[in-house]
Amino acid sequence: MKNRTWMRWLGRVALGLGALLAVAVVAALVDGWRAFGQRADGERRVRMEKSPQWGGDGRFVNPQPLKNDFWGSVTGAFKASAYGSPSTPMPTVRAGRERFATPPATGLRVTWLGHSTLLVEVDGYRILTDPVWGERASPLSTVGPKRWYEPLVALDELPKLDAVVISHDHYDHLDEPTITAMKGWDTRFIVPLGVGAHLAYWGVPAERIVELDWWERTKVGGLEIVATPSRHASGRLVIDNDATLWASYALIGPQHRVWFSGDTGLFPAMRDIGERLGPFDVTMIESGAYGSAWPDWHLGPEQAVRAHQMVKGRVLLPVHWGLFNLAFHGWTEPVERVLVASQRVGVTTVVPKPGQSFEPEALPEFVRWWPELPWQTAEQNPIVASQVD
């Protein structure tokens, strides 16, 4: 009798937990439905399938497949740094319309707004990369990596943009609330193949969306924007992994050249980018959110410096850090290691505060604005891409 009572109680508990799980899943789907975006179809899909990057299984592929160590990722969580996020407010610089009212004296100015969001003013044109004004790098409003500080310039304080450039559709680079707020702007949205389906779903007019394959170009006045290769992945839901393309970008003006890496691991064709489109006055290269269990997904600090050399950069700006906690390393580790690697090989590196502007041809005096915290060296935690000589 007692056994039957016990079994009935367990059954009710299991039923209750199942119901709670179902409610949670439904709530998450409702909360994130719009942010999940839309799959490409019709002419957009036909064009994707003609890409040399399109694989036989209906997904885009990298020439050098990504190495993944699942168990290494799991065990890495137990070794996560105690300094993954700032414990005190970060030093930042607020920006506003007045900052951008005067054009850069040298013709090239970059404003780092945290992570991979940058306002690039080049030869009279203004380009915004991977704009993220939302609170979380997540489809959900209450779960997911939360930004460490408020946006450093209000959307309505930005100057008129000539183009918004998006590298791929991961949540820390393609933010639905931000795109929805921008959907009526008189600007062009330049994205890799397939990503335009998300933008169209969120209300961006089709005539303002330009989708590019690797090495394809588009012009914004006298500025040429070239989608260059990268080594990464895409997806906003587990079932749509690699359904859209990822890219880096070269911005080629009459007087200056800029390269934005987007998210990427190291790959041999970086040398082709440098040979075909370099040298670059400034490179903006992802340097954070890395791990030895996924060495091909992100560059890591030392390989960011190597990538800068491969594409023939002059001044390096390390990005993809300083806003979200997306990996197991300490939050200051990327910049510490980039500086060590840069000094070792003589690369000029600039590290502005989030929100600060600089001109690569008139660099400000170096100021160490972040705290001194424990961090692992390249020898302690090496990030080495596979299939790269």
UniProtKB/TrEMBL annotation:
Residues 125-321 form the Metallo-beta-lactamase domain. It comes from the Bacteria. InterPro entries: Metallo-B-lactamas, RibonucZ/Hydroxyglut_hydro. GO terms for cellular component: cytoplasm. This is Metallo-beta-lactamase domain-containing protein. It comes from Pyxidicoccus fallax. The lineage of its organism: Bacteria, Pseudomonadati, Myxococcota, Myxococcia, Myxococcales.
